[in-house]
Structure of Glutathione reductase:
Amino acid sequence: MFGIQAVFKLNPAHIIRRMASAVTKVDYLVIGGGSGGIASARRATEFGINALLIEHGPLGGTCVNVGCVPKKVMFNAAMHAEMLHDHKDYGFNVPAGTTFDWSVIKKKRDAYIKRLNGIYAANLNKANVTTVLGHATFTGEKNPTPIVEVGGEKYTAPHILIATGGYPVIPSDDDIPGASNGITSDGFFELEDLPKKTVVVGAGYIAVELAGILNALGSETRLVIRRHQALRAFDSMISENVTNEIEASGITLDKFSQVTNIVKDATSGKMTITIQCSPSGGRSKSTVVDNVDCLIWAIGRKPNTNINIDKVGINLDNRGNVVVDKFQNTNVEGVYAVGDVQGKALLTPVAIAAGRKLAHRLFDGKTDWHLDYNNIPTVVFSHPPIGTIGYTEAEARTLHGDDKIKTYSASFSPMYHAMTKRKTKVVMKLVCLLPEEKVIGLHMQGLGCDEMLQGFGVAIKMGATKAQFDDCVAIHPTSSEELVTLR
């Protein structure tokens, strides 16, 4: 990974390593070198601000190092694996026994991430953002603003941004015996080999994505979910279809289930995992899965607030997230928070946008600038991928009433599969608000839905109506044309 020495060599003038006891004061102090913190610090310096950024790990945060970027690399590899099954149907002769070498993609992926770490450091240096390497904590002192300490050094600023992100959780061994034998999504990117047999626990997008990747690349994969469907926070059409696609792909899906015990063999390293199924109104049963190489917990994330945040008196909600208003203000004057640490819309582009708008508001005179958290487009890199923006049908009906909502939907096989034995579906839905049929929700799953969402997101953000969708001439033959021809 990208170490301290590598950062120091890029531009020592922008790395502070003093041992003085005095408090260093800057204009803008950013705690966290992930996407949101870096974006905000860099934007602030464009307005002549003296910004200082503190980071204890590799630059780029979760997204670059153990999140969306390396995940997308593995998703791309998985897509190649899936299409190999279709090559014969399209007339290509694929040699029998074609194999996948995990070590090749891991080596190239890690090198790519290291390059990105270097690019982030270079961009910070170019923007004249001072970088401090180490773990930041609030001291509880004020001068007159809160003081932050890093390795014995103290810093303060009239404006302090908390952008420390979050981390994946894992159950304790007290709650689930042997739980610590499992790994999280962070550990997935440390795997040196493709596990022969994997159990993934969780029903959210991380669990769905990792299970899909591992299954496509050849791991015997099992997904354990607590209810009857995955992605239950999504539109019901998406939840139903993604669950069907998971089962159709060959993943063993344990519904109404949870892992209750894990025993790891000290010699082989393989695990025996007990899964308890407790369907509502049905008979409970236990399944014992043996010879498991890898157990992945994908059961949620928590905010990184281990910076003595209590010493500043910052309010947290019941999940431990930093409470902010629409301007990203905490309850402590001059202290702000963006990104995963504040618990809303845990997406990299959201953190970047919020961080930049905050910089404009604080230092560029845009006193009313803030991020609109409505209509944020989201993609899940499942198999096939999901694209969604706006209200689900259930949310829209609850908010506006059944008589104010009209939906349009479609389900079909994409043209790509006209030639293939392997099949996946495309499902699409528009949620419209009457009387003008303003499109307030769009949900879809299928080949290409990840790439087609962005443009429709712009239209929905601009307030497009169903009539305006219909007025756009379709592009044929594509799956996206369905969205402008729904009846």
Observations:
- The domain at 23-165+304-364 is CATH 3.50.50.60 (FAD/NAD(P)-binding domain).
